[in-house]
Write a structure and sequence with these properties.
Blueprint: E1 3-7, H1 11-21, E2 26-31, E3 42-44, E4 51-53, H2 66-69, E5 80-81, E6 85-90, E7 96-99, H3 103-108, H4 114-126, H5 128-135, H6 146-156, H7 160-164, H8 170-180, H9 194-206, E8 210-211, H10 216-228, E9 232-235, E10 250-253, H11 257-264, H12 270-278, E11 284-293, E12 306-311, H13 315-326, E13 336-339, E14 353-362, H14 371-381, E15 389-395, H15 397-403, H16 419-424, E16 440-442, H17 456-472
Parallel strand pairs: 1-2, 1-10, 2-9, 6-12, 10-16
Antiparallel strand pairs: 3-4, 5-8, 6-7, 11-14, 11-15, 12-13, 13-14
């Protein structure tokens, strides 16, 4: 029997472990922290029993993940839940746009832009499951569905500012802008549309789901499946060098590229080490969790029913804020994402006190306090919010990195989403998972297809590891 060590117990590390264990490999996961989960951890905060997600909170890419759906995770307690509206985008004056799971419902509420929204997302979302097989793999490969991929992929290479011009109304452009801002990348640059169009298309197929009992339910279920397959998990084990690694036939690193260099050192080929050291991290996130009595008093009716609310105003405002953070400056009105997961999963609340999850896009390593900027953006679209706050919990960019070293400088996407890193991952190669050292693979969100709790980075990397084991046997 072959042995594998997985360094890092986030969703990708666990996905790699499960993929290997399913093929009879003996797997040990080593997690530096006291608990597994990485970006999918959840805990009670502020008010006893009030449940908040640490980072990943809404899962349009995970709920339809080809890998997760291949596992019996329901038997381990994973339950997906949806609210009436996936995402709302308020504008000044009480106006708003809303993203529904249904393309038709979304289009029906966008007026003259309805037909254009239907044209943009109708066919691609209907065929998303076939499309996902290609977009959730490295792009430098022969696609299984080339025509479908081309139809989806051509618009994604465009800057977000160009795609926004396809729509006429402020509402539709703002709704699109909030989606594109998930890339935390300047919207005037090429490929800045890719992540936003991807989550919109996936959402129209499977919805923007939350995990009942918190995002930790995803990794709890993966961990239970791994143990069922004979794998083991050890927490509180920090790997700093190869001397800390037990003997194994393959090693999977659910780590940022810089950490892989630190561990493997001069064992890495020079070209790989240089690429990993050049790997760029993007802007950061500044998070504030709120305990809110009676919920947020949104002026927009759609926002009161939406799991996710994007706060950034008009498309030009969003584009301005995203450009500023890349320049290292904190905008007066940052883009803020609000999560109201309790609307889909009421078990997270305590009576009429509800957990409200927020984070603002800020410069990498931002050392200031963005709490007031977040509250001001919410107050802008929900007057009286401040009076309903029962308590808060803050997570700065530094605290994000301390809690998860993959989030360098608060970069919760594990890497800037520029053209090179979106297409290739940590280095330019047809196999972005292989470190250049036999049997050693990187499987974090720095690799394709990128961030999210879908587990595909780990599953993809593990498939390469299995082929290596097959050749070596």
């Amino acid at each position: 029997m072959s042995d594998a060590v997985v360094v890092g117990g986030g969703p990708n590390g666990l996905a790699a472990g499960v993929t290997l264990a399913r093929e009879g490999v003996r797997v040990t996961v080593l997690e530096a922290g006291d608990e597994i989960g990485g970006g999918t951890r959840s805990s009670t905060a502020i008010v006893p029993g009030l449940l908040h997600d640490h980072c990943a909170g809404i899962h349009p890419m995970a709920v339809g993940s080809e890998f997760l759906r291949s596992l019996p995770l329901e038997s381990h307690g994973l339950r997906w839940r949806w609210s009436e509206i996936d995402c709302a985008h308020p504008l000044d004056g009480g106006r708003s746009a809303a993203l529904y799971r249904s393309v038709e419902d979304t289009a029906a509420n966008l007026g003259v832009d309805g037909p254009r929204w239907r044209l943009a997302f109708g066919r691609t979302s209907a065929g998303f499951d076939e499309l996902a097989h290609d977009i959730m793999q490295p792009l430098m490969r022969l696609p299984r569905h080339p025509l479908r991929l081309a139809r989806f992929g051509l618009p994604t290479v465009l800057p977000g500012s160009v795609v926004a011009r396809l729509f006429r109304t402020e509402e539709a452009r703002a709704l699109l802008g909030g989606l594109l801002a998930h890339a935390i990348h300047p919207l005037h640059r090429p490929l800045s549309s890719a992540i936003g169009l991807g989550i919109a298309t996936a959402g129209h197929r499977h919805g923007w789901a939350v995990a009942e009992g918190g995002s930790r339910s995803i990794t709890d279920a993966l961990a239970a499946e791994l143990r069922k397959l004979g794998g083991s998990i050890e927490t509180g084990v920090r790997v700093r060098s190869t001397a800390d690694l037990p003997p194994s036939d393959v090693t999977m690193f659910d780590l940022a590229p810089g950490a892989v260099v630190d561990i493997l050192g001069n064992r890495l080929p020079g070209r790989v080490a240089r690429a990993y050291r050049r790997f760029r991290h993007g802007p950061g996130a500044f998070k504030v969790d709120f305990a809110v009595e009676d919920g947020v008093p949104w002026s927009s009716r759609e926002a009161r029913r939406a799991t996710t609310v994007h706060l950034g105003g008009s498309f030009p405002e969003i584009a301005h804020a995203e450009r500023k953070i890349h320049e290292g400056a904190m905008p007066e009105r940052p883009f803020v994402l609000v999560g109201q997961q309790y609307l889909a999963d009421p078990s997270r609340s305590i009576g009429n006190v509800h957990p409200v999850y927020t984070y603002a896009h800020v410069p990498n390593g931002f050392a200031g306090d963005a709490s007031e900027a977040i509250i001001a953006q919410i107050e802008r679209f929900a007057p009286g919010f401040r009076d309903r706050i029962v308590g808060t919990a803050v997570r700065t960019t530094t605290e994000f990195e301390v809690g998860n070293p993959n989030f360098v400088g608060g970069d919760i996407l594990t890497g800037a989403k520029d053209v090179r890193q979106v297409v290739f991952g940590p280095r330019v190669t047809p196999n972005p998972y292989w470190t250049g050292v036999p049997g050693r693979y990187i499987c974090s969100a720095a690799t394709p297809p990128g961030p999210g709790a879908h587990g595909m980075c780990g599953a993809n990397a593990a498939q390469h590891a299995l082929r290596y084991l097959s050749r070596a046997s």
